[in-house]
Protein 1
Amino acid sequence: MTKRNLKLFFRDRGAVFFSLLSVLIIIALYAVFLGDTITGGMKDVKGVDFLMNSWVIAGILAVISMTSTLGALGIMVEDRAGKIMKDFTVSPLKRGSLAGSYIFCAFAVGVIMSLVALVVGEIFIVASGGEVLSAENMLKVVGGIFLSVLSSSSIVLFLVSFFKSRNAFTTASTVIGTLIGFLIGVYIPIGSLPEAVQGVIKVFPVSYSASFFRTVMTQQPAAVSFDGAPAGMLKEFNTELGVQFEFDGKMTTLAVCVIVMVVTAAVFYALSIWNLSRKKK
């Protein structure tokens, strides 16, 4: 069943395209508008292109972990809308296996698309004059991809569990794809937003996926860009661009990001199972 769902997803070019649409929008906006706006006051900083390109790719990894899993779970909505789900439920296939096939498909799609985005992103960074991630940081990012996809897919599964029609799913996908860039501070750096909006970003679980990737991927370029600079400058950069979040003067760490992603996955998968089971009754 998982193999069947994967084939359906990758065979549908439209589904693949729309799962990448947010990523394409981010790249286009950064290339045309956001790049000069964000780096306007940092033109004289050494290695600023390496630093900001790493920041953007990190944000893209967080975005694609949600949009790609959302696109993959669209198969479940299609099966419901087309009454195919009823055929499966009267077959010898166990309900747990059926639900698991959609979850494994979404997770696999999210990991595959994220790894492809990482490879393409690293090629872009190196081609722009940057450096490839160190072996240690590469392993951290790959591990972060698995956690990020696990966390994002749990949220998406919970949302999709409410949809029974194609139109509702399409509308939700459009809204989520549009908002995700704002909610993790890709389009507009978090430091430029009002405090109330910053508070929303800080409680949005996917923001911690972005923070994890940004912390790891900007470590090398930041060491170059802020070499010899006061420690306060690096802290200001991290808080302004959402590399780390500040709570009562304390900065979040990679451990905090991991905990948030794990807890999010556990909570939302539990809520999804409860909602799906409730509907069966």
Note: The mean pLDDT is 83.
Protein 2
Amino acid sequence: MTSESRTVVITGAGTGVGEACARQQAALGHNVVLIGCRRAPLEALAEEVGGLVLSGDAASSTEWKAFCERILETYGRLDSLICSAGGHDLGAATDMSEDDWQKAMRLNLDTAFYSARACLPHLIKQQGSIVMLGSLASFQAGGDICGYTTAKHAIVGLTRSLARDYGPKGVRVNCVCPGWIRTPMADEEMQPLMSHYNESLDDAYARVTQHVPLRRAASAEEIADVCAFLISPTSAIITGSMIMADGGSHIVDMPTLAFEGL
């Protein structure tokens, strides 16, 4: 690839949606920058699709300074940022320690903020774009996931603030909000259901999506498709938007479900 190819930076690139985005962008002929905390999966991915591996903490401004220097040295430009880094947590407010709270904010909000802040000067030069990974939890509250829910709600505010401030400078910022996605992290979340109901992984996913209009979870590749659209010229007029990629979960009126089938 040449320095004239578009350069797409992806945090959380080692697994799940981040990995799917990296594979897709590389297949499209773009330079991909693979950022994550664990080097091994990043290097394994780079062996398959190419790209620049940068292992470190996306919530560190110090590390981002070094990241940006390496990106510019390698590719000469930075066109798009996909903030896919994140992580789940369990616990209601009174069950969480201060460390639990700080970890939830760091994994899900700080990674997005520090990534965007570091990349913005370079994105302004290229009239580039940012995609944040929100969640259905950016608008609704699940039980016993206080930190995750709060951080994902905050991602909406961050998206809107950045879109408002940097739209006049030519940078677009949008947020993709999935529901259930079949990823290794979600597979782990299915384990209690599988154990309780003595059912398969497929059965567990069917159970958690039984009221979703499309009746299934998304694939990581489907969410990557939405991210690809939002960083492409095809979406040139879209900024500050929350794209619900949840199979229709957000339109379901939960209080009326008890009346179905009467």
Note: The longest helix spans residues 98-126.
Protein 3
Amino acid sequence: METGNHSGASQFLLRGLSDDPALQPLLFGLFLSMYLVTMTGNLLIILAVSTDPHLHTPMYFFLSNLSFVDICFTSTTVPKMLVNIQAQSKDISYTGCLTQMFFFMIFVGVDNFLLTVMAYDRFVAICHPLHYMVIMNPRTCVLLVLMCWFIIFWFALLHVLLVAQLTFCAGTEIPHFFCELAQIIKVACSDTLFMTICMYVIVAPLGVIPLTGILYSYSHIISSLMKMSSSTSKQKAFSTCGSHLCVVSLFYGTSLGVYLSSAMTHSLEKSTVASVMYTVVTPMLNPFIYSMRNKDVKGALGKLLSRAASCPM
């Protein structure tokens, strides 16, 4: 196999989920359905929050941002995979691969940070209810979201610039269905020690710090709930935190599964299945978790669908 610099590697090959031609129509139908459900569910959450005045609060502002990021998160990987299945091709251009990796890192990072901001929002609401509207004012909420985007943008850009310095062999195959940073580093032909160190040094804090913030927030929330004498107040607090905890557990459980499966097993199939849970299933389930466990969201969605059904064709 001929080796050249990155400009010589005009394209990569994505191995995909399966090489079996008989499975391709099934995979196409399955992932198209999941993608459409993800888009519809998250769009409904955004529309419900934007049209219902009762949901114009910090908690639902962050929720609508999470839904927007989930739409973008899924859209970075699934459409390209569907095109490749339909065209019976595995090609992705060098520029397209780096672009996909860049946006994937941005959206997964912002998703992670937004979950931390939402935990902080619940912490202020339950532990400091009298100061909630002062602390979580509109300006602060917007700044928190912008800060998430700003930090992750530079993190993703740094990694793309570092990957651009690597050399690749002609016809390099990436053993995945999308361009993931760790997999791209593995298939590089040049020395990747510095890049690997940078990846872990930068990625570790960006994973540990948000998770620490979530655990810190919920430790204080649980402590405050234990001190509440009213069972009604406890139930209301649990209902507002329950959906978020489910989403956090799903996000960190599946993402941790990806890296554990990559580190502990050499099976590409197991690692790929874990990645599907992380990148496709989680964004699809988030709207259902919030709509089923939250009466306010459920009511807003009901009103939205009723208005849509009553509109003349």
Note: The longest helix spans residues 193-227.
